[in-house]
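seq as requested:
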Amino acid sequence: MPDLIHATAVELAAQIANKRVSAVEVTQAHLDRIAEVDGRVHAFLYVDGDGALEQARAVDHAVASGQALSPLAGVPLALKDVLTQTGVPTTAGSKILEGWRPPYDATVVERLRDAGVVILGKTNMDEFAMGSSTENSAYGPTHNPWDLDRIPGGSSGGSAAAVSAYEAPLAIGTDTGGSIRQPAAVTGIVGAKPTYGAVSRYGLVAFSSSLDQAGPFARTVVDTALLHAVIAGHDPRDSTSIKESVPDVVGAAMSADVSKMRIGVVRELSGEGYQPGVQARFDEAVELLRGQGAEIIDISCPSFTYALGAYYLIAPSECSSNLARFDAMRFGLRTDDNGELSAEDVMRHTRAAGFGPEVKRRIILGTYALSSGYYDAYYGQAQKVRTLITRDFDAAWASVDVLISPTTPTEPFRIGERVNDPVAMYKADLCTLPSSLYGGPAISVPIGLGDENLPVGLQVMAPVMADDQVYRVAGAVEEALAQQWGGLLLDQAVAL
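struct tokens:
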């Protein structure tokens, strides 16, 4: 039997369609891999073995009956535990939702099912997507497959680690301020944040409604693009959903042609605070793109330096509002309900027991920023900075087609290293925050190993609905580096 867990999604789908292997065999191989290594990685919170095999059998039936298949039919996927799936536990990494089984599917899940993608289970995450390390999960941290003492990024660290550890060839994460791109960078895989509104948020447990966006992880740029194409598209159930057609991200990823493209290097996203190995790999990637015929242009986006402060006022403010629904009255955890306490006391005790320290920190910060007398001074000012950041992007598009930067300032840090230093933790998203506040697409692609022999990523950012452009550049980088390395960056990892 071929090596199923190391195959790409494209290879697996072709083997299933050509009847060289069955979808059940592919699914079982990945379930076996999860059983073998996930005790050390802790990428999954729930493995739906029976459900996954049932989905796989349906694909095999479709193959046997000669039905037309999607490009990813039968390929296994790990799903971040912030998207609802009928009858499957959905906790958002929080005790307050422990044991909740939704009665409906998120639109992303519906589209995965329609495409014949096999959902293996739900992955670990920072509670309510609040974090950059997956240490804020109520169910314990996820470990980076490259070094089990390191973080896998966050908040989608479980999904990224599952792909990096060969537990799944595909995964879905969500990105609010970098929570797909940053984990992708530090685990040596590809991760993309689509244009805000290009992928439906229906069924996504909300953290920050003006920022949250689901997106794909994979080990190659083409696999990532194929998954992007499956989940993207207008959804009338989501009021923020864009009605424009999805750009040809798959064609762009396959083209990988950057000749004559104008690529801007963001001056503000480099220098002090960036590890030497990260900066060195980035500089090499810039020269690689120049060698492929791209025009490299130095670009200044001065408002990007304020993105961190603006984000950590806007996102907590929206979180304060969104998480008010967890009141012990409708669903989720309910504590100290002995019939003697008032509704307010039950609510207070439940939220104290159900939310972790980081969620409480952000609720308090957001509530303060929205309070009477402070709204204009904090939240209002942060929204003005957001406008300035958008203007910097718009000004840049007059000169360049895409912008690039390191994905993260550092290689993955050790578990526990920044737990007691929230500001240091927040700085892990320094490079990814501007495009989140702007709403445009961005992708992280591996570009090598840093000084600590751990993965480093290149971030590509593009105008709204120009998602194909980020895939074109990422594909070019991946193709050129694969020729140098003789394969993917993951091929250089020490296997678990």
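Residues 9-257+442-492 form a domain with the Amidase signature (AS) enzymes fold (CATH 3.90.1300.10).
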